[in-house]
What does this fold into?
Amino acid sequence: MLVLNDGQIRSLGFRWPELADRIERAVRVLDNGDFAQPIKPYLRYRDPRNRIIAMPAFLGGEFDMAGIKWIASFPGNLELGLPRAHGVIVLNRADTGQPTAILAGGAPNLLRTAAVSGLMLRRWLETRPEAAPLRIAIFGWGPIGRAHFDMCASLFGDRIGRFLLHDPRGVEAASIPQAWRDRTDIVPEWQEAYGGCNVCITCTVADRRYIDRPPADGALLLNVSLRDYRIEALRSLQAIVVDDWEEVCRENTDIELLHRENGLLPAGTASIADVVCRDALRGWDPAEPVLFCPMGMAVFDLAVAGYLAGLARQAGVGTEI
It folds into this structure.
């Protein structure tokens, strides 16, 4: 069994094109039905803001693996100078159940989250080539926000006109990659970025919804943090994509908000499989804003973790026990 810590995983590099392609292949396996993924339970105790989530899954096809991600999210950690999230991923052989790898969950979680967004953004751009140059707003400059910046710069750098960054805790100019500082603005209020962007990525740990206005025509909203939009901002949206309706329509997400207050039903959404396998984005007018709400699917964590374990074994990185 291979054991990988966070530093060892990061030493392999963040290979965004390969990661986005791997997520796309996982979506096709998902669409074929060769997977198992029970609804993930949330363990809560004492402070209701905190949760530890179990994410078991099997992913067949070319992947043929099972496993589980066990991830804790404690928002108050930020006030203690600690990361909000901690986790591990265990991979098992699909045929015997034998554990084959244990990975520290920090880097794989960043990679999976941003790679799913990258796949969605890639598909959106294929159907809306006129969207370039991109003006990309990122709300939240923690690890997930920075991973999205890195992913966008790597996959779409030649199509990006400007990044706009907002975090209520502030953004240090030195934390922006040197090559992008002349094309990146730090804005003190979210409104300064939101109206003028055509891609808005929310990566916050906001404790209350704050975006209260509809998006710009034709914008793509990558709603990674899931709880940033008030109902008045979303009420008129027609183009809504989810990774999995049963997962995402709960836990006070913006999808559950739309379901509860605006009558949104599964038939009123498309899935990421519809986007990848049936070109669903072409069914909406390019002027229609697109909202993508990914709750996070364990099958994608397996796809990324299996890829990283394979790279590590090839490179002789990690500890075999």
